[in-house]
Specification:
There is one protein chain. The protein is of the alpha/beta class and 433 residues long. The protein has three domains: 66 residues, Alpha-Beta Plaits, CATH 3.30.70; 275 residues, no CATH class; 67 residues, Electron transport complex subunit B, putative Fe-S cluster (3-methyladenine DNA Glycosylase II, Chain A, domain 3). The chain has 15 helices and eleven strands. It has a four-stranded parallel β-sheet, sandwiched between helices. Helix 4 crosses helix 6 and helix 4 packs across helix 12. The protein is globular, with a radius of gyration of 24 Å.
């Protein structure tokens, strides 16, 4: 079952090196959407993958790779605006300031460099304005959930669809940058916005894919997204040659903090929570689903353990990068460097709001006929009948992550009862499905 409710083939984000895979069940057990099976001693993705990378993290042999950075030809820099994520600022050591990095990108040939940290800073204030408004409305869903991590949004859509209404309906900083950088570049250089190409530098494949998927919905896509690791070395070399004092970095520490867990909510003078790590994220989403955290205004979820600093495209050790970022926050201060009236005007004009209502595009519920509903009920009866026969030891020897999923696979024709070692041992495999 891919969980999409559609006939279309789900996207596979995971690459599997069959020469390294030995068929252990660690990746299958780690997958939060039960998308992995072990068949003929090899891992296979046959369900809905949310691009979390958890399978790659637990694989002891390096057989799975959820991270695959795109390549970028530096000879093309003159054609692009570049938008670096705030994680990039923590990759080059304590003595390299954000402005040095932005100037380095400019020296690499990009014709316009957009400081995403400043966009994050104004987004923090817009979030606070939305929370204030929502608290004055009856039956508004709380807590609100950060839309920043695309893996979290996919996870919610797949496992917690009732929580989609909790997702903050404001555009993420990277989405605002896509819109604003093209607008400013067009005005400054006399081009049409649709003619402008934008390069995003990201810490993970999930964000890179989110950028590309979002752009493709707008029409022919000229934008690109690459990992930090794809541009780190040439950028590191050129930073050593910087002798320019032009100011390109405009945010305070609030905007910089978005790169690590807790950085987004640090800017909000509200009752908030920051949760990081896949399993902790699932646990707290379950709590929200049960209505246990309604006193909270906002929850920042990050699948990576220390936030985006732990993304697979980051180069510097995540804890060392966190230390660097904390130092930068102290240097630039914890006050927002924004024009409050200007941001309020933008907010009132709807500038911050997304048109991707309700952010459930990853999984659209099917429109079922009465006959399909009847088949679904009958399928579930068959699943329960088989499940009652199983040992429920959740051993994974059958190639499915747990006994209930194995029962579903049997009913769907993806496996047979003979693959359950306990049923085979007891000789109880005569049931007809």
């Amino acid at each position: 079952m891919d969980g999409t409710g559609q006939d279309t083939e789900p996207v596979r984000y995971v690459q599997i090196d069959e020469s390294l895979c030995n068929g252990c069940v660690l990746c299958m057990k780690a997958c939060p959407t039960k998308a992995i099976r072990i068949k003929e001693d090899l891992a296979q993705v046959q369900g809905f993958c949310i691009n979390c990378g958890e399978c790659a993290r637990v694989c002891p042999r390096g057989a799975l790779a959820a991270a695959r950075s795109n390549d970028f030809d530096l000879s093309e820099t003159g054609e692009y605006i570049v938008s670096p994520c705030t994680t990039l600022y923590a990759q080059f050591g304590e003595d390299v300031l954000p402005n040095d990095i932005l100037l380095g990108l400019k020296k690499l040939g990009f014709w316009y460099v957009h400081d995403q940290a400043y966009t994050s800073e104004i987004s923090s204030f817009a979030t606070e304005l939305y929370i204030r408004e929502s608290r004055e409305k009856k039956n508004a869903p709380f807590p609100l959930i950060s839309p920043l991590c695309p893996v979290v949004i996919k996870l919610i859509a797949y496992r917690f669809p009732s929580l989609l209404k909790h997702v903050l309906p404001l555009a993420t900083p990277r989405e605002l940058v896509t819109r604003e950088a093209k607008k400013r570049g067009a005005e400054k250089y006399g081009r049409k916005p649709e003619e402008i190409k934008l390069l995003h530098i990201t810490p993970c494949q999930a964000i890179a894919d989110s950028v590309m998927e979002g752009a493709s919905r707008e029409g022919p896509c000229q934008d690109k997204a690459i990992g930090i690791n794809a541009i780190y070395e040439p950028l590191q070399r050129i930073i050593q040659e910087i002798d320019d004092d032009t100011v390109l970095h405009h945010s305070g520490g609030i905007g910089l903090g978005w790169g690590m867990s807790g950085g987004e909510v640090a800017a909000l003078d509200r009752n908030c929570l920051a949760v990081s790590g896949l399993h902790e994220t699932i646990r707290y989403l379950e709590m929200i689903e049960m209505g246990l955290l309604q006193d909270l205004d906002y929850v920042e979820f990050r699948v990576c353990g220390v936030g985006c600093l732990g993304g697979p495209f980051a180069v510097t050790d995540k804890y060392r990068a966190k230390h660097i970022l904390q130092k930068l926050i102290l240097i630039f201060g914890v006050e927002k460097r924004i024009k409050y009236k200007y941001v309020i005007d933008l907010y009132n004009k709807g500038w911050f709001f997304t048109d991707k209502e309700p952010r459930s595009r990853e999984i659209k519920p099917p429109q079922l006929s009465s006959s399909e509903i009847s088949k679904g009920i009958e399928r579930q009866r068959s699943v329960e009948e088989i499940f009652r026969l199983l040992s429920r030891k959740e051993c994974g020897a059958c190639g499915a992550p747990d006994c209930r999923t194995f029962a579903e696979d049997v009913v769907d024709g993806d496996t047979t009862l003979e693959n359950c070692v306990f049923l085979k041992k007891k000789g109880a495999i005569s049931i007809q499905v």
